[in-house]
Hints:
Blueprint: H1 2-22, E1 25-32, E2 35-37, E3 40-43, E4 49-55, E5 61-65, E6 70-74, E7 79-84, E8 90-96, E9 104-109
Parallel strand pairs: 1-4, 3-9
Antiparallel strand pairs: 1-2, 4-7, 5-6, 5-8, 8-9
Pfam family, one: Cupredoxin_1
Keywords: Signal
Organism: Methylosinus trichosporium (strain ATCC 35070 / NCIMB 11131 / UNIQEM 75 / OB3b)
Amino acid sequence: MTRFRTLLAIAAALAGSAATASSETALELSIKDHRFEPASLTARAGEPIAITVKNLDATPEEFESKALKVEKVVAGNGEITVRLRPLKPGRYAFAGEYHEDTAKGELVVE
């Protein structure tokens, strides 16, 4: 009987994970020539957000946002995914720390 309860608990946990992942707002962002494309992303307030950042340049870049409390290096020709908890409406700036003069963007949460 204990084994059955354990299996039920695992199944419930997996179902909860799947529900969470499917309710995320998935956004994509690329870095090319040390610029973000698109420079502005939009998401709905109150929902978890996953931003996949693809670095199309050969050199590394750091996706950084003090407002979002994120700082992650993206290897040259690499990819990362940043998961954010639900946010309040607002504008959240981000930048590429290694090329802050050109790599700028914002996440608009409505």
